[in-house]
Amino acid sequence: MDGLKLHDLRCFDAVVTEGSFQAAAIALNRTHPSVFAAVARLEAQLGLTLLDRGGYRVSLTDEGRQFHARARLALRELEHLQSYAGQLASGEETILRVVMGDVCPRPRILGLLSRFFAERTRTRLHLEYEAISGPVERLMESDADLIFHRANPSDPRLERIDLCQVAFVPVVAPRFLPFQGTREITPEAMRPFTQCVIRDTARHPSTENFFVLDGAHSCSTPDHMMKKELILHGLAWGHLPEWLIQDELSDGRLISIAGKHIPGRTEMVAAVRRRDRPHGPVAEALWRYILRRRHGMRLEDRRHDRHALRSQRRSGVCCQ
């Protein structure tokens, strides 16, 4: 068996798919004799009888059925390879690497990405999660094309599109604290209690202090969902993004302790990319797409803020 022809494999697949030589010839825009000859040549090269021609319609033999299953996989892989080559020739990326940071309101960012990539099936989204200084480190080390996270607005190497603000609220579970009142709580009063923090995923972690009390016992988690679970179960206290805990604040499963001594904090989430490196067609299209959608995200952000304020007033929560 030597020198199998792609044309012969495609003719064989078409006969099986269409059910006859004539239908295959029409589908391939070939003549009936050329399709018949291609299948016969393939059988001769393989030393196998692939089709049973004895009935009204051709059908696969047992060997033909097994061979066709593998042949279809090979043809499909070849189509992918040809598409990949076309993308390379046009300069279009086959993979776009995006990192979401821990401050992101995930439903909104994932919705934005889903709508964009639904129309760009030839480019695969490679999406990862990083925390604290991890996203920016990945971007600066060229391990990501784009990140959704906080970033230094004065860094000349970075270009950003501000999308929405995320409020972080210091919270505890009911009965976590042995004393009454939440508005005048001081860091000194909270120091005996375990504080839950997010682990920095960067290889070279930032020295910036993100809500951490010096001298307090702490535990760490990989993400805010795990952190939320620990706080809900009364194992620690900590700051959580307000979008993640709206329901728990409203129904009393979590209590804000934000006040003048332990204030909340607001972070600006932005789409960030390198200014000092070229960007492919798909990455550039995504950037323009985000620019067009940012106004809608800000309107949603304002509606969310009004809703959160009403909820806080109803529940007596004080958040700064």
UniProtKB/TrEMBL annotation:
Q: Under the GO molecular function aspect, what terms does this record hold?
A: DNA-binding transcription factor activity; transcription cis-regulatory region binding
Q: Where is the HTH lysR-type domain?
A: 4-61
Which organism is the protein's source?
Answer: Mesorhizobium tamadayense
Q: Gene3D superfamilies per the record?
A: 3.40.190.290, Winged helix-like DNA-binding domain superfamily/Winged helix DNA-binding domain (1.10.10.10)
Name the InterPro entries on file: LysR_HTH_N (IPR000847), LysR_subst-bd (IPR005119), WH-like_DNA-bd_sf (IPR036388), WH_DNA-bd_sf (IPR036390)
What UniProt keywords are attached to this protein's entry?
DNA-binding, Transcription, Transcription regulation
Among the Pfam families in the record, one is LysR_substrate
The protein, known as:
LysR family transcriptional regulator
